[in-house]
Amino acid sequence: MQTEKQSFINVNHLSSKKLLHTKWTARLPINKEKHFLVTAVHCDEEGNPQAVTLEAVYSQRDRQLDWRELKDVQRWQTGWQ
Question: What is the pLDDT of residues 27-80, one digit of tens each?
């Protein structure tokens, strides 16, 4: 079982190539959307990740956010919990 500190460390070491198809759990689900999958990584001209598209498993709705927001262990946890 991962602790919050371990999740934070793992997120810091993610590369743009490793972000794609990763699984995330929202700590505070909204509209029954708790589990998400990264379906796209949006990079700048140099290939640095800028944003990700998350797809909710429950509703298949997409949302785009700055990939750095996934580092917030108060809002996101790696994997499906």
Answer: 999 889 999 999 999 999 998 889 999 999 999 999 999 999 998 999 999 999
Domain boundaries, the chain: 4-78
Task: Give the 3-state secondary structure of residue 61.
Answer: coil
* Fold held by 4-78: SH3 type barrels. (2.30.30)
Helical (H) or strand (E) element with 11: helix 4-12
What global pTM score does this model have?
A: 0.79
Please give the distance of CA 74 from its chain centroid, rounded to a whole number: 13
Q: Which one-letter amino acid corresponds to residue 10?
A: N
Q: Residue 81 is encoded by which pair of tokens?
A: 């919990």
CA distances from 13 to 9, 19, 58, 79 (A): 7, 10, 28, 15
